[in-house]
Design goal:
Keywords: Cell membrane, Glycoprotein, Leucine-rich repeat, Membrane, Receptor, Repeat, Signal, Transmembrane, Transmembrane helix. With 990 residues, the protein is an alpha/beta fold. It contains twelve helices and 60 strands.
């Protein structure tokens, strides 16, 4: 499969070809109704007139295309044709002739409205059954808004041509169509050019196709055939006359491994693009020997190209294997064919490798060569100059290196040239473009930034470009003067060209035609005009990351504007809402803008993204949000805003991203936030919010995937309701005043337990989201890959209790930071189950016990901090712990020993342990003898006296008389002393 590196292409580059094709075809032509001239003198019958009028009555015709359908001679009506002599209606051609600018994309805005106005809709009347001789029915490119294809069409036995494509029919394909034994052309491609969410057309099986024995052309593209996926090919194999088969995007999931009696002898065009075969090509596939056009792009095919297998395809004129997992050196295999009829070769985004062979020059009929997104190495072969008919050359996103050959300038038919995203070096000179007078689209870049343009200031190129995209090539220091000769430019992208100085005045004279402008990452300076005018409907203006200064310019008629990371200063113009009312994306971050957000922003009704971060805006947050119904991303972070979050922000029905970090906001979180039910990112970090973290964040904001509340003054416990957020994969509550235990239910956070594909993220904002997180002991900024980041950071609080074992169930957790709390107990024994954990910080707690034996199995771990706890025992010395050899990781744990600490567990400490054991044993022995001696002495003494008294009666009498005398003496002594004391006290009182 193609590598991720090959697939990571900038959005500007992906749109390059789109712009080129768009610019070729766009024209503001008026809508025209299809008219089929008919000069037959014979009039159609009354039955046919009535049938057509009933058919017209059922249709919706907003533009009046059927206004000619009056009178009795229907043969003169627009879209109707009759047979010679008899005047029978044989053809109805009501296809929409609106000039579709780019037929593979959905229309929007005014173009969509104009197209809808020109389209027919409504219902199809069964009165058509009275047209007994009807052989041609074309209702394509209209919009029937999801009605079913009428089953009675299967009774029009004379039909040879049926085209219902691009007309938004839905539901099941009626198998009755299988009765049309004379049918030669069938096209049911369902989607309209304006219905993005149109219902699907589907078929449970294709057995009905076997009745279409005359069929030569079949297009069921985008018809859902998943229910017929296992047996879809057998009925088609029974169509002996089939010449063209189109089944793109049909949700087919299998290519039969065997197919007895391959019957595709007449088949010349096979289109299976955009399916899910998940297999290699079966052997029978290579027996379709008469193919001239094969399309297998984006069909999940993994195969190694072998010379013998492709020998039967030497007559191929067009071959498209793009976006699959093909491997090998296919160009070398194909170049062994003696026939040079190949005109189109598309091998984009596979795993082809090796050098582009010199034999490429043998394909002298080649008009389109797309090898982009593979792993080709080496340089462009010199034989490429033999491809004199080549119109399109795209070898971008490979591993090509060296210099670009000058003989590319000999390809006089070339109109599209893309050599970007390779490791080119050296010079691009005027010779490289010597004979490219037809060139319309030019794309160049060098990943090692070693490519430079070297042309004269007075150079006048032979071409007139419409699209130019040059990145990371030295164009400067001066602004390219030769661009002044390019009067047809609609897209200009010069990124990282080391261009300095001001933009010349002549360039702004070209701007009214430009629909895409990207001059970011240069060193352009100066003050821009207050108003920049571009072509109506311009898509993107990006002047970010330069040195422009002065007041902020306004760009009218532009959908997306980025002026970020410059030196614009002063307030945002008050009229920005009126002058940029069509803008959808406004990015002004990283400037020196001050003051408040103008109230006129409320007039930007199409706004989807507003990024004002990193400025000097002050005061309370703008409150006039109501009415901005399309807004889904707000970034006001890194300003000087104060107060609270206005309740009007949660009146935005599409809001998905709210970033208010690094301001002076305060107070408790407003209850109104619970109405932001689509919110996926909430970043309130580095403010002064207080109170408890509300339970409703977990109970109501179920789309939340990123919750960043770090560096505030939140108190109380962590609400267990957060555990119920199914998409949450970044939870940062660090540096607050939170207390209580870590909720064990955090182990239920499902987003940490499975891998999320990019397209499964719960938000789809065009905003290029970035966020700062504390990872590996330092602040890191994450851009674009946020959907892959899995973090729990609860550090710097007053959390108590043990680390819950449940947290070890979060198998996709990447960072866990519980440092600087009051946690006790042991590190969970199963922590080794966190195989993808890269960062673990448990420092500055009161953890005890040993380092769990499972931790060395955490092979992804590259940052560990266990310092300042009460851990004991030997530090593991296997696997990942061999790389974690910084003593500071373990310091502050007096009981730990072993490398990298200087305390050796195996020798001094081991002897010491034995000595301590011996000393303890000696102490125990002494105590035993001591208490034993006391016991023996007591027994001997007691029985030595008492025993004698019992045995000798005279001793017993003598002993008790002695005791009595001593008692009397003591009594007399006490009495005498008491009398003396009394007399002294009496005399002292006198």
């Amino acid at each position: 499969m193609p590598s991720m590196a090959n697939m990571e292409i900038s959005s500007q580059h992906l749109l390059l070809l789109s712009f080129y094709l768009y610019s070729l075809f766009v024209s503001p032509e008026a809508v025209k109704a299809t008219s089929i001239s008919n000069n037959f003198s014979a009039a159609c019958s009354e039955i046919e007139v009535k049938a057509l009028l009933e058919f017209k009555h059922g249709l919706e015709d907003p533009s009046g295309r059927l206004s000619s359908w009056v009178g009795e001679n229907c043969c003169q009506w627009d879209g109707v044709a009759c047979s010679n002599g008899k005047g029978n209606v044989i053809q109805i051609d009501l296809r929409n002739s609106y000039n579709v600018t780019y037929p593979e994309y959905i229309m929007f805005g005014r173009e969509a409205e104009a197209y809808e106005w020109s389209s027919l809709g409504g219902k199809i009347s069964p009165s058509l059954l009275n047209l007994k001789y009807l052989s041609h029915l074309d209702l394509s490119k209209n919009n029937f808004h999801g009605i079913q294809i009428p089953s009675f069409l299967g009774s029009l036995r004379s039909l040879k041509y049926l085209n219902l494509s691009h007309a938004s029919f839905a539901g099941m394909v009626p198998p009755h169509l299988g009765n049309l034994s004379n049918l030669q052309h069938l096209d049911l491609f369902p989607y309209s050019y304006t219905n993005v969410d149109s219902e699907s057309l589907w078929a449970s099986d294709l057995n009905w196709l076997s009745g279409l024995t005359s069929l030569r052309y079949l297009n069921l593209g985008n018809v859902n055939l998943s229910l017929a996926s296992n047996h879809w090919l057998q009925p088609i194999n029974l169509l002996p006359s089939l010449v063209e088969l189109h089944l793109p995007a049909c949700d087919l999931r299998s290519l039969p491994k065997s197919l007895p009696n391959v019957n595709f002898t007449a088949l010349r065009v096979l289109d299976l693009n955009n399916n899910y075969f998940l297999s290699s090509l079966p052997p029978w596939f290579f027996n379709i020997s008469n193919l001239v056009d094969l399309r297998l792009s984006n069909s999940e095919i993994n195969d190694t190209i072998l010379d013998d297998a492709w020998r039967n395809f030497c007559n191929m004129q067009a071959l498209d294997l793009s976006f699959n997992g093909f491997r090998g050196e296919f160009l070398g295999s194909l170049s062994k064919c003696s026939n040079t009829s190949l005109k189109v070769l598309r091998l984009r985004y596979n795993s082809f490798s090796g050098q582009i062979p010199e034999s490429l020059g043998n394909f002298k009929s080649l008009r389109c060569l797309q090898l982009n997104g593979n792993s080709f190495t080496g340089s462009i072969p010199a034989s490429i100059e033999k491809l004199s008919f080549l119109e399109e050359l795209d070898i971008s996103s490979n591993r090509l290196s060296g210099t670009i050959p000058e003989n590319i300038g000999q390809l006089r038919a070339l109109s599209y040239l893309d050599l970007s995203m390779n490791s080119w070096e050296g010079i691009v000179s005027e010779i490289h473009f010597l004979k490219l007078k037809h060139l319309k689209c030019l794309s160049l870049s060098s990943v090692n930034q070693s490519l430079a343009f070297s042309v004269r200031d007075e150079w006048v190129p032979p071409f007139s470009l419409q699209v130019i995209w040059i990145q990371d090539c030295r164009l400067g220091p001066a602004f390219p003067a030769w661009l002044s000769t390019q009067k047809e430019l609609v897209s200009v992208t010069l990124i990282g060209g080391r261009i300095s100085g001001t933009i010349p005045g002549w360039f702004w004279k070209l701007s009214p035609k430009i629909r895409w402008l990207g001059l970011q990452n240069n060193q352009l300076t100066g003050i821009l005009p207050k108003s920049l005018n571009f072509s109506p409907g311009a898509i993107r203006v990006d002047l970010s990351s330069n040195l422009f200064r002065g007041t902020l310019p306004l760009c009218s008629n532009v959908q997306s504007v980025s002026l970020s990371n410059n030196k614009f200063s002063g307030p945002i113009p008050q009229t920005i809402g009126q002058e940029m009312s069509f803008s959808q994306i406004l990015e002004l971050s990283g400037n020196f803008l001050s003051g408040r957000i103008p109230s006129s922003v409320n007039k930007m009704k199409q706004l989807t993204t507003l990024d004002l971060s990193g400025n000097q805006l002050s005061g309370k947050i703008y409150t006039h949000w109501k009415g901005l119904d399309e807004l889904n991303a707000i970034d006001l972070s890194r300003n000087n805003l104060s107060g609270g979050i206005p309740s009007s922000m949660c009146l935005l029905p599409q809001l998905q991203v709210m970033k208010l970090s690094s301001n002076n906001l305060s107070g408790e979180l407003s209850l109104s936030l619970q109405h932001c039910t689509h919110l996926a990112t909430l970043d309130l970090s580095d403010n002064k919010f207080t109170g408890r973290i509300p339970n409703w964040i977990g109970a109501r904001l179920l789309s939340m995937s990123i919750l960043n509340l770090r560096v505030n003054m939140f108190s109380g416990s962590i609400p267990e309701e957060l555990c119920g957020l199914p998409a949450l994969h970044i939870l940062d509550l660090a540096q607050n005043n939170l207390s209580g235990p870590i909720p064990p239910c955090l182990g239920n956070l499902s987003a940490f337990s499975s891998l999320r594909p990019y397209f499964s993220v719960p938000y789809a904002s065009p905003y290029s989201e970035e966020i700062e997180l504390n990872v590996k002991g330092r602040q890191l900024e994450y851009i674009k890959i946020l959907y892959l980041v899995n973090i729990i950071d609860l550090s710097g609080n007053n959390l108590r209790g043990e680390i819950p074992d449940e947290i070890t169930r979060l198998s996709y957790l990447g960072t866990l930071n519980l440092s600087r709390n009051q946690l006790t107990g042991i590190i969970p024994e199963n922590i080794g189950d966190l195989k993808l954990l890269e960062t673990l910080d448990l420092s500055c707690n009161k953890l005890s016990g040993h380092i769990p034996p499972s931790m060395p199995s955490m092979t992804s771990l590259n940052y560990l901090n266990l310092s300042y706890n009460n851990l004991s025992g030997q530090i593991p010395s296997a696997n990942q712990f061999l790389t974690l050899n910084d003593p500071s990781v373990y310091e502050g744990n007096p009981g730990l020993c072993g490398p990298p600490l200087p305390i050796n567990c195996s020798m001094p400490n081991e002897d010491g342990a034995h000595k301590q054991d011996d000393q303890d044993e000696e102490d125990r022995s002494e105590k035993i003898w001591f208490y034993s001696g006391i016991a023996v002495g007591f027994v001997v003494g007691f029985w030595g006296v008492c025993g004698s008294l019992i045995v000798k009666k005279s001793w017993r009498y003598t002993y008790f008389r002695f005791v009595d005398r001593q008692k009397d003496r003591i009594y007399v002594m006490i009495k005498v002393n008491m009398a003396r004391l009394r007399r002294k006290l009496t005399n002292g009182g006198r």
